[in-house]
Design a protein that fits this description.
Elements: H1 24-54, H2 56-63, H3 65-68, H4 79-90, E1 94-100, E2 108-115, E3 122-129, E4 135-142, H5 149-160, H6 164-193, H7 211-225, H8 227-238, H9 244-254, E5 259-260, E6 273-274, H10 293-302, E7 312-315, E8 324-328, E9 339-342, E10 349-353, H11 360-372, H12 378-405, H13 429-445, H14 447-465
Helix pairs in contact: 1-5, 1-6, 1-12, 6-8, 7-12, 8-11, 13-14
């Protein structure tokens, strides 16, 4: 993902009578080149790990088949019996956090506990046969998506390389710069297709070309077909990022476009912004204070209100003055994420939130996240994600191969020389102003892009000011 124009493609010098040389294409090319060279590794790792993550739902079904499934039966025990079977396994080592009833005949019920040794948003899930209360498994699950150990490991590698908060900087750089690199490449593609005669070579690879031009043909033609998918992954990936993601959340909150959340306060009901990426981060009431029989009663109430899917999670109150929550967790289309709060003592509904009432920004955020994770449209969604991710990995690889074909030698002065330096010096005042305003705006919204862009500028300035080496004799 380095160049979409070559040194031969740069505009010829203007005549002496000309007062100004073309600058915008050269500026984009230089930005695209240095961003691709320096950020390419981050994008490559994110793309390959993302492709692997997209395939994990099927892997989970195979690897954890015993935990996820049980023999089909015409009857099912009440939740209270299933919960008590799980509590017998956990004992005093954890507090009951949530229950996910078996969604269909042949699936198991998840009884989820908090406890020592668990990370943020992690729970200990006991898998119960709904017909016999047999314990089918004991695994750590992560987040509202309930991912199991294999998928969680891949997810954390994709998100932060297993380096915690510091590692999140890698994914933020990848997601933020992916959009910049792709947009710069697309703009140069437009500039080039308006000039060349063989326009079809920019829409499909030229298999007759050899060497550098063959790589360039694959890079340019593949890139334009990946444009929409790459921009989508960049935009939705930013929502998980540490700094840019927080800025996006702050903007949504400022314009009252946050996602509504259920109120569990029995004294006062309210709607507050919610984090779509949050997991089970709050502590639950002690297991001893929760009557397992209440789970059946609360679910029955919710099913008369707005809960109409088998994929649900029932959460007990975190304190005595809090309500129970029944939340739909079906993230595939059509989206089912309605929720209802119920007073566990009186079984009265105290609050409800319906996805149909979400504002447009909240709906788009929900759909974008679920599509990014491959759950929105099932297998088709996964296949498109895998193809896009592998395509991006190929773009990065072709970009580096293109640079290697024109790598520095004893007779060259600069690293691949993607375009002549000094593009901004040739720009009109309004062009310089537009670039400065754009850089400042991007830097404020995406801080890591702004910081790394300054690094690129310094490197470029040093390379530009360095005197050229003499050609070997």
């Amino acid at each position: 993902m380095t160049t979409i124009l070559t040194t031969e493609d740069t505009p010829p010098p203007t005549s002496p009578a000309s007062t100004r040389q073309p600058w915008f294409g050269a500026f984009l090319l230089r930005l695209h080149f240095y961003a691709g060279i320096l950020v390419g590794p981050f994008i490559l790792v994110a793309a390959l790990s993302g492709a692997l993550y997209a395939a994990t739902p099927q892997l989970e079904q195979v690897i954890y088949a015993h935990e996820l499934h049980a023999p089909e039966s015409a009857t099912a025990l009440p939740l209270v019996d299933q919960i008590e079977a799980a509590q017998a396994v956990v004992g005093d080592e954890g507090s009951l956090a949530a229950v996910r009833p078996a969604p269909t005949n042949g699936d198991t019920t998840r009884v989820m506990f908090t406890g020592d040794g668990l990370g943020e948003s992690e729970t200990r899930a006991i898998f119960i046969d709904r017909a016999t209360a047999e314990v089918r498994g004991d695994l750590t699950t992560y987040g509202t998506s309930g991912t199991l150990p294999l998928r969680t490991w891949i997810d954390q590698f994709h998100r932060n390389l297993h380096l915690g908060e510091i590692g999140r900087l890698y994914s933020e750089l990848a997601a933020s710069w992916l959009g910049v690199v792709v947009l710069a490449g697309a703009a140069m593609w437009v500039i080039r297709i308006r000039r060349v005669r063989a326009k079809r070579d920019l829409l499909r690879p030229n298999t007759k070309a050899r060497g550098y031009r063959r790589l360039f043909s694959w890079h340019a033609s593949t890139g334009i077909w990946l444009l929409v998918g790459a921009l989508f992954l960049s935009a939705t990936g930013i929502t998980w990022s540490q700094y840019a993601g927080q800025n996006v959340s702050d903007l949504r909150a400022a314009f009252n476009l946050g996602t509504p959340s259920i109120s569990t306060d029995l004294a006062e009901t309210a709607t507050a912004p919610a984090d779509e990426h949050a997991g089970h981060g709050t502590a639950s009431a002690s297991t001893a204070a929760i009557d397992p029989a209440t789970f059946d009663a609360v679910l029955a109430v919710a099913q008369t209100v707005n809960v109409n899917t088998g994929l649900v999670e029932i959460r007990p109150p975190a304190a005595a003055d809090q309500a129970w929550v029944v939340q739909e967790i079906q993230r595939s289309f059509p989206t089912e994420v309605d929720s209802v709060a119920v007073d566990g003592t009186t079984l009265q509904v105290t609050d409800r939130v319906d996805f149909a009432d979400f504002n447009l920004a909240a709906k788009l955020s929900r759909w974008g996240i679920d599509t990014h994770m491959g759950t929105m449209f099932g297998l088709a969604n996964q296949l498109v994600l895998i193809a896009t991710a592998l395509g991006l990995a190929a773009m990065v690889s072709w970009g580096y191969l293109m640079w290697w074909k024109r790598r520095p030698t004893l007779g060259t002065a600069r690293m691949g020389t993607p375009a002549p330096a000094g593009a901004l010096a040739r720009a009109p005042w309004w062009g310089v102003l537009a670039v400065i305003v754009g850089v400042l705006a991007v830097g404020l919204l995406f801080p890591l892009v702004g910081i790394s862009l300054l690094v690129f500028i310094v490197i470029d300035a040093l390379l530009t000011l360095r005197p050229p080496r003499s050609a070997p004799h």
